[in-house]
TrEMBL record:
Comp. bias (Basic and acidic residues): 575-587
InterPro entries: ClpP/crotonase-like_dom_sf, Enoyl-CoA_hydra/iso, Formyl_trans_C, Formyl_transf_N, Formyl_transf_N_sf, Formyl_transferase-like_C_sf, HoxX-like, NiFe-hyd_mat_HypX/HoxX
Identification of the protein by name: Enoyl-CoA hydratase-related protein
Domain of life where this protein originates: Bacteria
Domain Formyl transferase N-terminal positions: 42-143
Domain Formyl transferase C-terminal: 172-250
CDD domains associated with the record: crotonase-like (cd06558), FMT_C_HypX (cd08701), FMT_core_HypX_N (cd08650)
A Pfam family the protein falls into: ECH_1
Location of the region described as Disordered in the Swiss-Prot/TrEMBL record: 561-587
Length: 587
């Protein structure tokens, strides 16, 4: 079918729906709202879709459209749930089961007949993590079921019989009472507001939106008091414990551009009182928050990291490089990089760059720090390195993964291996790693099309070595099991020996330094050219400015496969077979 996606933003869920529908042979077009005044019907007519689908839409579809075309809306709540803050309420109230519903659009929001509904669990994580994982899995399953039912022309959607409409979850309800709220309550409120809108609060004499929350059991203080810092985060006392808050966003001053989220310590700057920096040991055994952690199981080391939004600042890149070197000093034969939940990496930290006194200089420092990390992975020849992607990756984050010997992805991953939408040529040794994996022609296509890839499509073209079908909460354990088995295979030792020979051969032909030098020469020209599009694109991205029109590359995307290729839905993705995918008919 020809399917038109209408969305308020080309966000993670819209990207996943886009990629997975294309995997199944549909042509997919995208239109971002708001559309020009009075142009809804005209725009839809121009696309002439078989179906209009709204994966993430914060405005109503006009009557003139839904009365003329079949229109489905994805609602992040179970049947009968209505309102604009569905997921926020679920997280703040601590529900354990939730769901996603695909509805027929009609006059009343979220009130249409039900085409599909899929239940999911709600683990104790932040809203944005939940949205990109359990909710996205349920939404994708519901969308595919609804599309299949619509295509059959024989399914009748069921009307909703009961409903509960809840209001927008505003700051009056989100407000934290530091004297009365328990740590658990504070964490829920913080997680329910992540990544937007944040929890508005007074801190150090100014109003800030607090983003992200992790419980701390060991530290104590007067409720509301700042106790310590760690890796750019601040620790604040509750009545029965404390919470770590990684990011802050200054409340916008009327007439001024929107403020950006920053690591809490950086955001507060000179306002921050003297506090102890309490780094957690890399192998911290107690359940305290840290963004980088290491553990071992037999001959396998696991270096996991989790940075808000997947962005990696200069400081984060350097700390991760230090941790990587420490992990490589351990007597293991296999090192798993990543493997937690949510984002793997999205490359350099555009928010920190935008807030810097000299964004060009910070861009340059940041890209060099990330290149240093990628180079360390590329030059690791004494063990097998596996990049384990539980969640999405983009730009330099994809290239960081490609530096490893193998790339393993959870089925729900979305990969964006391109840079041009930010006006960049790219670095992180991509001119070496990307063509080496997929060939020069495919590498060029990926970079020029700038479209998201599903994990299955990435596996099909050789970008990914293994696709693991599991729930988000099971990915770490499944990765550990598979890595342990891989470490015992007879061929692993010989693969490690060959790595050293291959790197020496590469260095004799064309040193890795040559790839880096050429890439960085292009990046330097862009960073230090004040007229380069990168600066305006970066500014618009971090300040969430909506484009004046839908980007041209999204207007129409053909199917991701050719007629000769197998339909991805006919393949069973597994985490147990040698190749990561087997040709068993789907149930």
């Amino acid at each position: 079918m020809h399917i038109l996606l209408v969305a308020s933003a080309f966000n993670s869920l819209t990207q996943r729906v886009h990629a997975e529908l294309r995997d199944r042979g549909h042509t997919v077009a995208v239109e971002l709202v708001p559309l020009p005044e009075g142009s809804w019907l005209e725009t839809v007519r121009r696309h002439a879709p078989d179906l209009l689908l709204a994966p993430m839409l914060t405005t109503a579809i006009p009557r003139e459209v839904w009365s003329a075309y079949p229109c489905f809306v994805v609602h992040p709540g179970p049947v009968g749930d209505r309102g604009p803050s569905s997921l926020d309420w679920a997280v703040q109230e601590g529900v354990e089961q939730w769901g996603v519903t695909v509805l027929q659009a009609e006059e009343e929001m979220d009130a249409g007949a039900v085409w599909a509904s899929v239940a999911c669990v709600v683990p104790p994580v932040a809203k944005s993590d939940l949205y990109r994982n359990e909710i996205a899995d349920a939404a994708l399953a519901a969308v595919l079921l609804a599309v299949e039912r619509f295509a059959s022309r024989s399914h009748t959607p069921l009307p909703q019989t009961t409903a509960r409409t809840r209001p927008y979850l505003d700051q009056r309800v989100r407000r934290i009472d530091w004297d009365a709220d328990s740590t658990q309550t504070v964490v829920r409120k913080l997680r329910a507001a992540d990544s937007r809108p944040g929890v508005l609060d007074m801190l150090c004499g100014a109003e800030w939106y607090l983003h992200g929350g992790h419980p701390e059991d060991g530290l104590r203080g007067t409720p509301g008091q700042l106790l310590a810092t760690r890796a750019g985060a601040i620790c604040r006392a509750t009545r029965d414990g404390a919470v770590w808050i990684p990011e802050l966003r200054r409340r916008r001053t009327p007439g001024q551009p929107p403020e950006v989220k920053l690591p809490a310590v950086s955001a507060l700057g000179d306002r921050l009182p003297p506090l102890p920096e309490l780094p957690a040991p890399l192998e911290a055994a107690w359940p305290t928050w840290t963004d980088i952690r290491y553990r071992e199981e037999g001959s396998v080391g696991f270096l996991s990291f989790s940075f808000p939004g997947g962005a990696m600042s200069t400081a984060q890149c350097r700390r991760l490089l230090d941790a990587y070197r420490e992990a490589c000093a351990r007597p293991t034969s296999t090192l798993v990089l990543g493997g937690g939940r949510d984002f793997f990496s999205n490359g350099i930290h555009l928010n920190v760059i935008e807030a810097a006194e000299d964004p060009a200089a910070e861009s340059w420092t940041n890209i060099n720090a990330l290149d240093d990390l990628v180079e360390a992975v590329l030059r690791t020849t004494d063990r097998l390195v596996i990049a384990a992607l539980a969640g999405n990756a983009a730009a330099g984050g994809v290239m960081l993964a490609l530096a490893a010997d193998e790339v393993w992805c959870r089925t729900g991953c979305v990969l964006n291996p391109h840079y041009r939408l930010m006006g960049l040529y790219g670095s992180e040794y991509w001119t070496y790693t990307l063509p080496r994996r997929v060939g020069a022609a495919t590498a060029g296509r990926l970079l020029s099309e700038a479209l998201p890839l599903s994990a299955v499509s990435a596996h099909r073209i050789g970008l990914v070595d293994r696709v693991i079908a599991c729930e988000p909460r099971d990915f770490a354990a499944e990765t550990g099991r598979l890595a342990a088995r891989s470490a015992t295979l007879p061929g692993t030792r010989s693969r490690i020996a060959v790595k050293k020979e291959q790197l020496e051969l590469q260095e004799s032909r064309e040193p890795l330094a040559a790839f880096r030098e050429r890439e960085l020469a292009r990046m330097h020209r862009t960073f230090f050219d004040p007229e380069a599009p990168y600066h305006a694109l970066r500014r618009a991205f971090v300040r969430k400015e909506k484009p004046a029109r839908t980007p041209a590359h999204l207007v129409l995307a053909p199917p991701a496969r050719t007629a000769a290729e197998p339909h991805p839905a006919a393949l069973r993705v597994t985490g147990t077979d040698r190749d990561g995918i087997s040709s068993r008919p789907d149930d």
